[in-house]
Amino acid sequence: MTVAEFVDGASPVIRVVRTYDHPIERVWRAVTAPEHLAAWFPTGAEMDLVPGGKIRFGDLGDGGSTGEVLLVEPPNRLDFRWGDQRFEFHLAAAGGTATTFTLVHHFDDRAGAASFATGWELCLRALAAALDGAPPPPADRGAARHEELVRAFGLDRPRVTRDGDGWHVRFERQLTCSADAAREVLGPAADGERLAFAPGTGHGARLVVEFERTDETAVASAVALWTARIEGVSAAACDIDGGAGDEGGVG
């Protein structure tokens, strides 16, 4: 399986590439037609396939949302916007009857990158099954895979910045468990350390830890300590979850 690619920067990007042994026209229908999208896309979707056309995600009467088609070049390219995120579907003939499908996801939430990538990998696994006429793959939240990608993408490392006479350290980590479960493993923060939880991307809660130190040795020691504590949450979440549960992680 091709590993999801993370392009870090001011506007992060996830790129996932898969090759399916099906003609390009069939794959195009699978990634644009509502009756086929339902088999693999994170939510139901209906698209008006013209530039500027509206996309309806989910049930608009029950918390659904809308997006906009930006570019359509059947059967090779579809670009669209969903909220503050942008997506590109690229299709190319890959020899014989095979098609290479490249999904590109542009977003601002850097800490959510591993969650987005894990979710898309699960979705494209479901797309493969749908194209093959096979049963859907077993439900899987991909907790272990998420943690692999966190480390591969460098999302386990904090941002350390010089701040006046010292250093400011900030961890922001997407978790695969609830805030309550994380608190049980982490325990309390020390004086001067700030620990907070916020809603995450769908895999679990978002953890933010911040603190200041005036000495480089103290910074290194505190970073090592908090890295170990957060990895303890990760390991516990994977043990409890086992990678199983409701599929999530995209958007």
Rounded average pLDDT:
91
CATH superfamily of the largest domain: START domain
CATH structural architecture of the largest domain: 2-Layer Sandwich
Shape: elongated
How helical, in percent, are the residues? 25-40%
Order of helices and strands: EEHHEEEEEEHHEEHEEH
At the first level of CATH, the class of the largest domain is Alpha Beta
Taking pLDDT < 50 over at least 5 consecutive residues as the criterion, the unreliable ranges are 242-251
> Structurally, how many domains make up the residues?
2
Quickly give the structural class: alpha+beta
Strand order of the largest sheet: 1-2-8-7-6-5-4-3
Strand content: 25-35%
Radius of gyration based on Cα positions: 20 Å
How far apart the termini lie comes to 23 Å
Count of alpha/pi helices: 6
Would you write up a description of this structure?
α3 (113-132) packs across α4 and α5 (179-186) crosses α6 (216-241). The chain has six helices and twelve strands. The chain has two domains: 5-108, START domain (Alpha-D-Glucose-1,6-Bisphosphate, Chain A, domain 4); 152-241. The protein has helices at residues 24-32, 34-37, 113-132, 143-152, 179-186, 216-241; strands spanning 5-7, 13-20, 45-47, 54-57, 65-73, 77-82, 85-93, 99-106, 159-163, 166-174, 194-199, 205-213. The chain is of the alpha+beta class and 251 residues long.
